[in-house]
Amino acid sequence: MDYLTATEFSKKWGITSRMVARYCEVGRIDGAIKKGKTWLLPANSKRPMDQRRKRLAVKTVKTTGSTLNPASETATYHTTDVYHTLGLTRETLRYYENVGLIEPKRSSQSQYREFNLYDMSRLMSIDFFRKRGFSPVEIRELLTAAAPEDYAALMHSQLDRLDRKIAQLQQMRHRLVEAQSFCESVPDIAGSFSIRELPLYCVRETLPSVSSFGEYRNRVLKFLDLEQEDILSNLVRAISFDETGYKGSEMYVVKPAVRMSRAETFLEHGKCLYTTLIADNNDPSVPEKMFDLCHNWATEHKASFRGVVYIFIRFVMLKKTTDQHFYEVWVQLK
């Protein structure tokens, strides 16, 4: 007689090998034998009927001139039924139970969850509120609402949360569009020079260097909305130089501004020589590279600088050993 393993039958029957082994252990498969830890089944074995699935008993209730079939009112559904009927996974049902949204009964024999008509209706009610932005924990809070006006107030709060989330997503989309646009323009602008007007930036804090990480919490993070703003995009390196080369630098925490105010400090604005520079984030020669590029351009075009340059990180490419930064360089022209 030919035999197949429990694993082979699990694939054939579409169930777990553990369930096949369970059938063998309780004697529901004739001719099954165990070799070590492996169950072997006759190749022509038939899958036993799953006793967890109860046939729906059809009750007939006679009334005046009609017959009603309330079978669905006494039906018992299992986790697999819920998945095929409502699309909810075992993990989702377990989570709903853990947070107190459902309390399915347990089979006295197998301890598997059993759902009745009320449970199925509750699951569809939960889905109603999930599609309106409520989390399972927030839906649990709805259980304490006693009247429509209570629900109306909760809906109003949810609308406020969604409006804030939409605003955050719109800001994220704006930043993503800017990053995409920069990536697309890099092949055309990399290493080229142009004259541009530096946008207005308000200086919120000054640091001695980019590596002053011990001061970031109190001097950088406190100025950022960490849910929305990344650190790199809000730091600007200011480098001072003269005709002999690089003299020194410091870091600014900046914020785009609409107009100037006497109460605030701003980056020097006006016409600048604009270019881009690509370098590894562990490359210490960025200031020197910047100076050489700009000095050569100034010599060729008989231009002079004010002696300050601002370097922004506009994009990052992640590498296995080091990251590559795409810098925007703004050199103040006289």
How would you explain this protein's 3D organization?
Helix content is 35%, strand content 27%. The protein is an alpha+beta fold. Helix 1 (6-13) packs across helix 2 (17-25). The protein has 9 helices and 15 strands. Mean pLDDT is 85; it is low at 53-71. The longest helix has 42 residues, at 148-189.
Q: Please state how the strands of the largest beta sheet are arranged side by side.
A: 8-13-15-14-10-11-9-12
The structure class reads: alpha+beta
Helix and strand succession? EHHEEEEHHEEHHHEEHEEEEHEE
Number of helices: 9
Shape by Cα distribution: elongated
Instruction: Report the end-to-end length measured between terminal Cα atoms.
Output: 96 Å
Multimeric state: single chain
What's the story with the biggest beta sheet? Answer: 8 strands, antiparallel
Based on DSSP secondary structure assignment, what is the total number of beta strands? 15
Helix content percent band: 25-40%
The pLDDT mean sits at 85
Beta strand %: 25-35%
Q: What Rg do the Cα atoms give?
A: 34 Å
Low-confidence region ranges: 53-71
